Amino acid sequence: MLPTSSSSSSKGRPIRPNTFFPHYLRRIVKWQQMDIEYTFWQMLHLCSAPKVVYQHTKYHKQTKNQWARDDPAFVVICSLLLSVSTIAYCAAYDYSAGHAVFVVLSVLVFHFLVAGVILATCCWFFSNNHLREETVNSHAVEQHVEWLYAFDVHCNSFFPVFVLLYVLHYFLSPLLVAHGFLPVLLSNLLFMVAATYYHYLNFLGYDVLPFLERTTLLLYPIGVSFVIFPILILIGFNPSRFFLNMYFSRPL
Fold first, then answer.
1. The pLDDT of residue 137
2. pTM of the predicted model, to two decimals?
């Protein structure tokens, strides 16, 4: 869904049938209606050339008159990949099959969906209330960021984080969970890169919207990351050990 158009008066506000979201949910169980190839193309370019993805978002707006995806394939595939990676962690660090199922569901529901809903809602609220250009003409059409587009931006930003913290981290975990300064340094650097890239992609997602201004405010959390992670390194905090100990029963 794209940022809708609404004038300052309710009379000028176009009435749209509220049928898109149910249709979006129905397509989740219909693989034949999903564009799998395009989804993997997006995932690849989000890790290598994210601006290209948002250039295609502009084309999507021009052809389908909406900013957000009308295809749930990205969410479905990302959920499946996240489940597979979590199962791999459970095979390496857990003893109980029942607990492994709990971990997979927890990561899928809370790490991806619940955290995504919270972050998307915060960005949706912030962009609509603080980043929209002020309309000088009282008769001009106002545009708003739709919540589903904000969730799309989160999903786009999350995928490289998934590659770094769920895939690459898995193969590096024997080194990262070891004791000593080097594992602490490498673990914090990996988490810092993931956090930085997430907020950079989040910025790109809102910067492409022509009716928003001051979108560089969305880059400020990157500065916070550059302050926090050196402090964590100095105090010897290892995020890899922390999260693996929190979720899995095998002692590290």
1. 60
2. 0.85
